Amino acid sequence: MGKQAKFIFLSKALGWVLLASIFILLIFIPLLTSTLLRTSQLPVSALEYWRYIESSQAVLMKILGVIWIFFLGGCFASFLNVVAWRLPRGRGVNGSSMCPFCETELLFSDNLPVYGWIRNSGKCRTCRTPISPRYLIVEVFLGFIFLLIAFFEILTGGSNLPFQQPSQSQGFEYLLFDPQWNLIQIAAYHLALICLLFTISLIRSERLQIPRSVFYWGLGIGVGLPLIWPDMTLIAWNIDTDQLIEIARASSTQFITFAYGLIAGSACGLLCSWATLNSKRMLDDRVHQSTIEQLNCVDDTIAAMSLVGIFLGWQAALSVTLFFLFIQAVLLVSKKGNRTSAVTPSAAVFVATLLHLITWQGFTYLPVWPSPTANAGGIAVCLVAILSVSAGLRKLIVAQQNLQIP
User: What is the predicted pLDDT for the residue at 292?
Assistant: First the structure.
């Protein structure tokens, strides 16, 4: 039996075991117990084993929750792979997925995240042309990112969110039986930002330009969703922590918050692009695309940081910029003579945004950190630090590139 056949057999066996466990622990035993209790025929001795059944049900719920969230992230990754491949080449995302070589329409099983790629041994089912392992890596990576965000923002009751009291309803059991919809909405909003930044990173990893349509979609989602569910915006532009008031839908406060976020994000993106010579890198990469495609593109760092400002606020834009500069400094030190880093600036924005989301609560109350509780002096110190580090980083990059010119 070959490796592919063994994998398919093992996958089917695990699937049947999981289905059997779901039926026995979550359907059959509760129904049987309910029936016996109504007829008063449940033996007292059986109650001694009930705690073991409940423990098994809790473990099964956690397994199902992890699988579902990971699968959801993989599905989005599969779609984003299509977006990142088609849009920079001037193609739409409508229509069925197909092999890029023989253009055979993919089956439903071929599109299943992770499983489809491994099942076909990383090759097209029809023409057997090798499919890049990037598709598998992206699906696994984004699946874990979804789990990470879900853990911090839903399963732990929003423990990472600023000015939020962690909910007492924590864990996969409460996610199913007592869902906290406000936390689910916030997590979905942040995951939308993560997916947009991830798409920009994927496109730039192939040295292609970012279509304006990606930014426009991000702008529409970032502004449109809070207009429907205002609770998605956690921090207003002028929030007073002594009087935390919810932002009203379509209010002047909401629109000013969006405007400040867009302005601050764009300014931070321009600074980050300048510090890392990203504009020069994009000019060097434009030989890969036609003039028409160039005219419809935007700077990836500016676009990514603008979206951060819109989704998370002007305070977060400054915070993400600090993380971005730290990441770039680490990459610069660890490059070991390479002319260009394999990590693009937009990928650094993606990682910096993740770090910000995870540590948001912890840094909110520091007086020198860019947060609503910081005083004018603290914010001034933060801005001076950002400008100083940006100038120093640019100087080091220029010096390193000059030294490497033959």
Answer: 40
The continuous run of DSSP H or E covering 50 comes out as helix 50-86
pLDDT at 199 over 60: yes
Which residue is it, tokens 């990836």? Answer: 300
Return the exposure string of 157-195: e unless at least 16 CB atoms fall within 10 Å of the residue's CB, then b.
Answer: bbbbbbbbeebebbbbebbeeeebeebebbbbbbbbbbb
b/e burial code for range 246-257 (CB count within 10 A of at least 16 → b): ebeeeeebbeeb
Question: What's the distance, CA 378 to chain centroid?
Answer: 30
CA 47-53-167 angle, 5° bins: 110
Residue 341, Cβ density class (10 Å: 0-12 exposed, 13-18 middle, ≥19 buried) = middle
How would residue 405 be classed by pLDDT, with cut points 50, 70 and 90?
Answer: very low
Q: How far apart are CA 361 and CA 371, in angstroms?
A: 10
Q: Which amino acid is at 90?
A: G
Q: Which helix (H) or strand (E) holds 249?
A: none
List 98's β-bridge partners, or say none: 105
* Token output for 283: 């000019």
**How many residues make up the chain in this entry?**
406
Q: What is the pLDDT of residues 223-280, one digit of tens each?
A: 999 999 888 888 887 765 554 567 777 788 889 989 999 999 999 999 999 988 876 6
Mean pLDDT of 35-49: 65
pLDDT band at 406 (very low <50, low <70, confident <90, very high): very low
Distance from C-alpha of 163 to C-alpha of 365, rounded to nearest angstrom? 9
| Secondary structure letter of residue 251 according to DSSP | -
174, two tokens: 């409460």
Which residue, among 152, 111, 159, has the nearest Cα to 135 in the 3D structure? Answer: 111
User: Residue 323: what pLDDT?
Assistant: 93
pLDDT digits (tens, 9 = 90+) for 132-158: 778 888 889 999 999 999 988 888 888
Closest CA to 398 of 274, 287, 305, 299: 274
- Show the beta-strand stretches assigned E in 75-125: none
Q: Is 154:185 a contact under the CB 8 Å cutoff? A: no
- Distance between CA atoms of 172 and 187, rounded to whole angstroms? 15
